[in-house]
User: What shape does this take?
Amino acid sequence: MENSQAQVVLSGLKSPEVENQLVQLRRLSTQIIEDNPFAVADKSSTLEKIQEEMRQRTGINSAREAFARFWDADYLATAGLQQEINFWNSEIHPLIAANYYRDINRYGKFIDHFWLIDLPFVIIFALNFLSRTYQTSRSNPQLNWLEAMLRRWYDIFLLLPFVRWLRVIPLTIRLYQAKLLNLDPFKAQINRDFAVSFAQEITEMVGIQVIDQMQKSIKKGNVSRWLFQPESRRPYVQINNQSEMQIITQRLVKVSIYDVLPQLQSDIADLIHHTIESTLNQSPIIRQLQKFPGMNQLPDQLIEQLATNLTQSAYSILVTSLEDPIGAEITSRLTKNFRNALEGELQKRHNLQELEQLFVDMLEEIKINYVKNIAEEDIEKTMEEMENIQRQFNCN
Assistant: This one.
């Protein structure tokens, strides 16, 4: 371009020499459009910008024709040579100069010499990493060098000659350690998300393992042996030399009889009344009595009195059986005989196999419907409750 300007000054715009120069510029402009040398440097957008500038300058929609028009002697004379040269030097030439050439090795890859610039920095980072590792190992003799290096694991990214963008990790951590960057909100949220995910997976895994072990024990017959062969059980350690299960059972029975049943006597009487009434109404004798004058209300009175007496008698029998030593002994014998008869029936092979299979299927359903489908919001709710407890503790 500079040679063309000098030639114009020497021989004028209409001289054959200048025309030859313009022909060459038109050819080179067409070659730029066809070959697109900007693509190698991933700067095709720059070529598009050059073409758009030339189209707007000449008023021609075709980029090739715009270049041909621009490098025409008549156009330059009409538009003003110096003005167009100034436009080229200020708007187009910087865009062309922005393109660059990169050498390619024998494998077709770009030759990258950036590592030569990066090498001194990597050496500095390596020396700093080694010195800090040495200080850590001296202050903690129980740590070996590998463990001391892992204490500053994030500095390893400074030593990698590739994926250099990962160096933002140690930079961020060091700014946080220097209290120049507040990462506490992000740190708290990351810890919370990790805890939620970890708790959910652990809960599912533990739940599934427990149920699997229970299913294996049932299939092997361990549960049936434990129930029906007491001599095979391990010795049970009693605290305070008392059976809590027996005491709980006795307490529940007393509460049920002395406190609960009195509140339900009216309901029980109504149920007995309805049962007796339904039975007597089906009797032909009662239906015949109701036909006599003054006898139609008699069955209702008898039923009411009978239901009340039965309810009170049943309740008195229950109370007496608990307070009377002989009644308590009979009740205990009845309970023992019932348990022995039930165990005898359950130990029959067909009953035992059916019950074991039902228990295995039930546990499998629990595993599928509850353990494997633990909802994330449940874990979230647990985390929120834990955070509320921690805030209350900190306030106190």
